[in-house]
Amino acid sequence: MDPLRSYLGRLLLEEITPVVMVLTTPLAEAACKKSGLSFVDMLSPFSLFKKIDVPVRTASEVPYRLQMFKIRMVYASDVRKEDYEVADEKIKPVVSEADEKALPDLLSGPPQLEDVLGKPEAELCPLWIKKFNRELMRTLSFSEHETFDHPVACLLVVSSMDKEPISKFVDLFNTNQLPSLLNEGIMDPQILKHYLVLHDQQEGPQDIAVNVLAEMRSTLGSNDCKLLCINSSTEADGSNADNSWLPYKALGLNNHEGTCFLSMDDLNEVLQHLVYIMCVPFPLRFAGGTNAKEGKLCCSVIFLALDHYSSVLPLLIKDFMQDFASNHIIPYMEQKIRVLNQQVATTRKGFRNQIKNLWYTFTSIESQIRVLGDFAFMLRDYELALSNYRLLATDYKLDKAWKRFAGVQEMSGLCYSMLDQSRKDAEYCMENAFSTYLRIGSSGQRSATRCGLWWAEMLKTRGQYREASSVYFRISNEEPSLHSAVLLEQAASCYLLSSPPMLRKYGFHLILAGNSYYMSDQKKHAVRTYRNALFVYKQNPWSYINDHVHFNVGRWYGVLGILDVAIKHLLEVIACSHQSLSTQNMFLNDFFHYVQSMGKKFDVHKLQLPVFNMSSLRVVHEDHRTYASDADVDVSESTWQELEEELIPSSSVVRTNWLDTQPKSSLRKFKDSSVCVAGEAVKVNVELKNPLQIPVDVSGISLICQLSTNLDALSSDVSGLTLDGGKDQVNIEPSVSIFETNADNFIVSQLDIILRGGESKRVQLDVTPKVEGVLKLVGIRWTLSNSVVGYQYFEFDAQKKNKKGKKGRRRPFNNNLVVIKGLPKLSGSIEHMPTKAFAGDLQLLKLNLRNHSEFAVKGIKMKISNPRFLIPGDSSDIGLEFSHCLKKQKQSVVSSKSMKENFKGLLFVFPQDIEIQAGATLSWPIWFHAATPGNVSLYISLYYEMENSSDIKYRTLRMHYSVEVLPSLDISFAISMSSSRLQEYIVRMDVVNKTPSESFVLHQLSCVGSKWAISALTSCSSISSVETVSANQAVSCFFKIKDFEADSCKEAGSGSYRSDIALHPGTSGDVFDVARAPLADFHFQERYRQGKLAKGPCSLLDFVLISKAAGNSSKPSPDLQLLSHHTCHCSARNQSPVWWLMEGPRTITHDFSKSCCEVSIQLVIHNSAEHRSSVRVATFDAMPEKSQTVHPHDSTSVQGGWYDVSLENDIKTISSAKSTHHEKQYSKSISPYVWCSLSSAQIDLQPDSCSRVPLKVCIFAPGTYNFSNYELQWKVHPSKRAQVNEDVNGPSGGGPGHPFYVTVLQSV
Amino acid sequence: MASTACFVIVSKNDIPIYEAEVGSAPKKEDLSYHHQFILHAALDVVQDLAWTTNAMFLKSVDRFNDLVVSVYVSMTHTRFMLLHDSRSEDGIKSFFQEVHELYIKIFLNPLYLPGSRIASSHFDTKVRALARKYL
């Protein structure tokens, strides 16, 4: 393999080359200084021979030809090992120079993936990095364990102006002045010597020099003496000299290879010619610019000039160097190789070096082998070199001279690599060398680095980039931060070059490199590396990585003074919710610091602080629908629509035919776009969240809007606007500044808030259009901490929304609103609407409607969703004092009827003559009754019409209230039928106070309807003890009720009975009228509701209990809290559908001496079932055992019909068909009385009707008789239809007669 | 128990869906980004390695100084990655296997969207308990 083809080969050819030690006299040096160069610098450009084409024969007999050859010219004073610190200082400028060039790059955008992947290797690993690598290796020059830096030859230079030049030559090579390495015996002082006389033509004629040369040749040998004439230019004076060398310096000639734009070959050409112009008197040399670009231009000019002027001096130097290399150095090396080879062969063959060498001098056999190997290596006889190195390796290993061993291993690795034989061996050697260097500690560290660099180059040559990068990474650990940074960067680029490219590794190593750069104060490099890594971490969900990269890039840009880019990067991290408080603080502080350094406010699109939750965005605009408060908007539209069905004119939803899906609306011309009214605020609700734990000051939150007054033009393409408007917005992202508020057309509200850490707030932003047109809501803007203006545009993706189709019911969000002419608007509220109330609470409230506009409104209608809770009152109620107006009055009020008509079907029409004038307020009474416990939503929709006709004929005002109703009194009734009297009932009322602290005063209990009369039980006429029900207390009261309409009760007389009973003493005349407007209406509603829940088939009556909140004694209660509890559809317990009662006189006086007594009694049978029923009554004469309830012990002992009657029979409840109180009677006794009219009867009873069966009894002796000797069978016929079906029979039953005691006395 | 152990579950889209510092060393903020970097970079290695073997447990795939990255790849190419400085390979294997079971349970949850972040506190507690047990 041609070593020149690989970078490693070229590197080796240039770095491991013979060293020529240069010794000059001060005068010779001064002659060179005239042109601004040292002697070495002058010769160096000519020390590289591209095509030297010299035949070489080393140990083997076969000669080969060397093509490229280089010699290193080094001053004797430099032939020494440098301190690491000093050497490292030399490297620093290499890095920092490169960062000057990096600056313009930093201003451009960061590279993207495609850019980076497409880059050639040379660009990834720029020239300065290669230079850095070389410099790093050179810090190891003249190390003691290697010999390839040992001088091969010595060039002694004397000026022709020197006195006694011959003795000067001798003095120069005085051992005292030679480098210590030579004196200490590490290097061989017996080297090739070459003598040169330098003649400055300005100093005198060339003859002097020629004489000197002749003298030298005679004394020092003819071959080794040369003459070089310089400074042929007559014009070259001191002042111009510096200028003329500027291009030379700018090209970086001091460093042998130069800047990026010239290849090695070009450079040498250029250099040679540049040297030429400094030597010739030619004005062109002033054309040389001071920078590289002009220098190149200059060069091309010089090439032209070359045609006209013979290049005297460069050719002279070139010839001299060529001669020196090919005729002296190479033959000398050949010869030395042969000698050493001979020597080694004999020594090694004779005996194995048994003396352990602690100190290797040049005379020791190991050093000689090493020199042999290195010389062979330099002359590219790698086989020979390798065999010697291997020989050495075993020796050094035995000697445990690890550093030397490692050095030899390193060289053998390189040999293997150059021979391209065994990759495995090469790798093994390098690995071995590397680890051995590391093992020996700090002294081997840099050597390890150099070894690593070779190794990595070797791997790169073979395309093993991954391995190379890990080598770079390993050596980076051994180096100070600056070096490690450059090495890490190389590791990163290797990852990128590996196949497939390992981008994440690339990014990571760049970040590591950046950190190292930053630590060694190379900020521009740090930024550059981070920036190059950015694309790897673009859109990265790894939060910490993202924050670290952006924060550091931002911060460093800030330090460099590139503030806009700094802020751009810092913006990425300020919304870091996952970081700790201190980190968030740090991020934010840095951000604001740079923002303030900018010195101006600036706009940031999509600023992440605070976060606007765009999905929470709601636009509230009022067209014909207006809302009383903002909370009402959240009620779903369907709820309102349902409520307003009868309210709004049906014309607006009429469809011409059933195929026409679009309802014909008066707003048709605006198509689908929303409508808002000029002068009325369009509200936008949006939620914003502070993701940080730090409070954030957000000020001036406002909407960005556009209003175009050209309605006609826009209304046609409103839909077009909505469709593409959103997309354009996203793509173009116009600066926020173009949307400056136009105060003439609309006003936007400004909102300032401070968001605490982690807080979310919902804000409402307003825009009030002032003129007609099309209002476009564009976005939101806000100012963060008075320094950064953030803005965000609303994004509307109409197509996406359509595709989803999930949120069908949701009002589509449209950012275009058609502004129409100003309309009247009512605002309304219910005054003192309670948010909490006890169940049963009854209040008179006021509905206030205010007209803000200049026009009157009329035709007001109202619909209430839940009439159980709210019922509009009468206009007359307004002036009345609450609770007084409910009191019973003499005259019957008819208005309740009219009210019911008005309020039919939940719709309430205000009187036609009511108009609300401009600026006027209408108050209307409205009754509130907390019907049931629980959370109740009340919806009220108010409809009104405008006087001035416009697009919108009517509007609705929507109000929504939610009331929490707490349980208060729990009331239940138990009704039992009185057994003694038909149509009389005993009522037990159980009142439980369920509140924890309130107590209530029971005021009044009313039966609804005129049919019923209620009275206290006579036994407990005073119930004052139960007037107050305290918290958690339960009270039971007993009442008696009577059915007025029942025939049997007629005689009771209605005067003394009433349907109300005052429970509170002293208030008997102060009862409330449950038959009047609000109570009756609410009762009607309750009855309707509770009727749905009632289970039983038959219901008797409804009760209304009115109570008052007792209130605390401390708190005077001017507005009395009144509670009304309605219990409807109460019915008696255990009631059979048919019941009966015997009626007749209880005491009869009769003269039994004349005749037997005939008693007429009636059996009253009542059918309370809903269906017709048939009843059969049968009387028995001879079988008294069935129902006689007399005690057996006095049956015969007492004369006549006297019996002891126990009292309990009287209060015995109605016997059911099942009752089993049969007692064994004396069976064969004769009945004391005889039924005398009929023995059996069959009656058909209509539903809810009474029938009377007349009965007669004949008694023969005075006494008390129980006329219960009869039996009753009944059967209900469910309905006609059911009757047909034989299987289904209605309930049936029967029973013995109830006891009916009649006392018959003997008349006197 | 390992002094440093950073456990991450990476979805097949290379998004970390669960992260936990389970080491006994006190948590330092500047280390968490460091760990993320190492684990993120190790994905490059996993990417190659995962297709070369049938085993789910890939053992240690990458190292950064004295920190080792061990990886376990599930069938859906969800990667369980552990950055650790301990040496017990068996423990790590058991840890991965049990976490895999937990992960499958999460996966079976019909409300869990595959590839989304695992927010279950139960899962977190269990993983930490497993880390105490095995690492």
TrEMBL record, chain A:
InterPro entries linked to this entry: Ig_TPPC8_1st (IPR058541), Ig_TPPC8_2nd (IPR058538), Ig_TPPC8_C (IPR057651), TPR-like_helical_dom_sf (IPR011990), TRAPP_III_complex_Trs85 (IPR024420)
TPPC8 second Ig-like domain segment(s): 840-957
One GO cellular component term: TRAPPIII protein complex
Domain called TPPC8 C-terminal Ig-like: residue spans: 1145-1271
Superkingdom as given in the UniProt entry: Eukaryota
Signal peptide per UniProt: none
Gene3D superfamilies in UniProt: Tetratricopeptide repeat domain
Residue span, TPPC8 first Ig-like domain: 632-806
PANTHER family: TRAFFICKING PROTEIN PARTICLE COMPLEX SUBUNIT 8, TRANSPORT PROTEIN TRAPP
Protein name as annotated: Trafficking protein particle complex subunit 8
Lineage: Eukaryota, Viridiplantae, Streptophyta, Embryophyta, Tracheophyta
From TrEMBL, chain B:
A Pfam family annotated for this UniProt entry: Sedlin_N
Gene3D superfamilies membership: 3.30.450.70
Parts of the chain that traverse the membrane: none
GO biological process, one term: endoplasmic reticulum to Golgi vesicle-mediated transport
Single GO cellular component term: cytoplasm
Domain of life: Eukaryota
Protein name (record): Trafficking protein particle complex subunit 2
Organism: Digitaria exilis
